[in-house]
Amino acid sequence: MEMIIGQLWYFGASFLWGFVLMFLYDFLEIFRCRVRHGKLWLFIEDWIFWLVAAILVFQMIFALNYGIIRSFFILSFIGGMALYRGLVKRRFICAVLAVISFVCRPFAWLRKKLRRKKEGPESEKSQNKS
Predict the structure, then answer these.
(1) At what angle do helices 71-83 and 39-65 cross, to 10 degrees?
(2) Please, what sign has the CA dihedral across residues 5, 6, 7, 10?
(3) Which of 15, 37, 121, 129, CA to CA, is 20 to 30 A from 23?
(4) Alpha helices, H only, 1-130
């Protein structure tokens, strides 16, 4: 009975890790959405993220199942990723982007006002003519 409970913990942990890794990857996608950069940086970011994810997942595998990868682990892990992607991903990204936009709105307004003040009244007259 103890062995079955251990395997159930392994199953649940793999499901949770799949869910959590997709959740964390969304933060990387949100960062990419707000800060544009080239393909090389995208490659480096992905490589580092998945390298760290692989280390953490294998650490979990060794801690819970002595390093033995079972087929139900892979299915559960993919299931957690798929559940997150299907039910949470879009709503989570939209919510985080809305919060970021709301928080940044006063700073954008202030920057716009400072830019107008810096340009002076001549630029306002030329904008009004066109």
Answers:
(1) 130
(2) positive
(3) 37
(4) 2-34, 39-65, 71-83, 89-119, 121-129
Mean per-residue pLDDT over the chain, rounded: 86
Residue type, position 74, single letter: I
pLDDT digits (tens, 9 = 90+) for 31-54: 888 888 889 999 999 999 999 999
Question: What per-residue string of b and e applies to 16-41 under the rule 16 or more CB within 10 Å gives b?
Answer: ebbbebbeebbeeeeeeeeeeeeeee
Q: Where does the pLDDT of residue 82 fall: very low under 50, low under 70, confident under 90, or very high at 90 and above?
A: very high
pTM of the complete model: 0.71
Counting every residue, how long is the chain? 130
Output the CA angle 20-88-38, nearest 5 degrees. 70
| Gyration radius of the chain's alpha carbons | 23
C-alpha 53/C-alpha 50 separation (Å) is 5
